[in-house]
Amino acid sequence: MKRNLKGLCILLSAALLLSGTAAAESGSWSQINQSIARGENWQRYVTDPADFQLGSSAPLEGHEGLSIQQWGEYPSVDGSTVCVPLAMELARQWLDLPEEDLNGFVNFSTTPYAYDRLTRGLPNPMVTIASRGIMMDDTHPIDLVLGTGPNADEKKAAEDAGVELVMTPVCYDAFVFLVNSENPVESLTADQIRGIYTGVIARWEQVGGLKDALIAPFQRPHGSGSQTAMEELVMDGYELKSVEENYISEGMSDLIAQIGNYDNSRNAIGYSYLYYVDSLYKSGGIKVLAVDGVPPTPENLRSGAYPFTVYYYAVYARGNENAQRFVNWLVSDEGQACVAQAGYVPLH
């Protein structure tokens, strides 16, 4: 198998990973500060593990002890940071990978890069199984994106490329608004949130908060999963007010840190996903607001009472029959039990 210089560099990086002298420091793992471990009461729900297994492997020429493995019937996955634990649980269920291998096997590039790879037929090139000395085939295009849905630009890019994206909801989550824990406000209406982010509401006292306190509204970059939800779900046709660069947080972890530690922290507001805040990046300096007086509980997500309830999707290119089979399993009772075990709110 011929590989270019970039591929060789990737393999050398993988070798460092396998030796334990380096760790994944980019993509989704840089946005996570919590351990994602198998729970004490973990159960195997997959009844026929032969359905989705990895393919054959072969020694990597010139690299003793290392092998290249084909994907076989198990899909190559990329996606949003918030779905990293879901992908890890799927690998536990089907492949019985040791916990120490999961960080290398689930190496997500974050939402916009994942959709770019899916549309252009590109691989996820840094996937390893360390304990077995394996580098997964870095020429195989990704089969599946797990995460937030594509934005309008990503849908247009797929259409222009002649790729029809199939989007299947796999679980619920809440798109939530965060303030510093010292902020006395506990709930905002959807209209108040839109007022804050259009600039119509500029002071906290206008929404029942502190007097003489300007609101510091943080945003995410265009194309990120949370910014897509803000633009398309929350703003509902209203235009977000432009903000200074220091009010745009590159990563979700940056946004949470800025709200918790911002110099005028009681003034700050931002947004994220509840699963991310609860499970992937914890900070004692923030709190989650109710919206229209409704807290984002699992019951309120299932009923639709919480106004900014969202889905996470499994997305693949139409015609990828193996990905379709895997997604069909994921929304089955067995697959949904795995979704719930990973800590998400299942569809049923």
Describe the structure.
With 348 residues, this protein is an alpha/beta fold. The termini are far apart. The longest helix has 15 residues, at 5-19. The protein has helices spanning 5-19, 84-95, 99-105, 111-120, 152-160, 190-198, 225-234, 252-261, 274-280, 298-303, 321-330, 333-341; strands at 57-59, 67-69, 77-79, 128-129, 134-136, 144-147, 165-180, 187-188, 216-217, 268-273, 286-288, 290-291, 309-317, 345-346. The strands form three sheets. Strands 3, 6, 7, 9, 10, 11, 13 and 14 form an eight-stranded mixed β-sheet that branches. Strands 1-2-5-4 form a four-stranded mixed β-sheet. Strands 8-12 form a two-stranded parallel ribbon. A hairpin with a 7-residue loop joins strand 1 (57-59) and strand 2. It is built from twelve helices and 14 strands. The model is unreliable at 1-25 (pLDDT under 50). The protein is elongated, with a radius of gyration of 21 Å. The chain has a domain at 173-309: Periplasmic binding protein-like II (D-Maltodextrin-Binding Protein, domain 2, 3-Layer(aba) Sandwich), CATH 3.40.190.10. 33% of the residues lie in helices and 17% in strands.
Task: Throw out a few tags for this protein.
four-stranded mixed sheet; alpha/beta; 348 residues; 12 helices; elongated
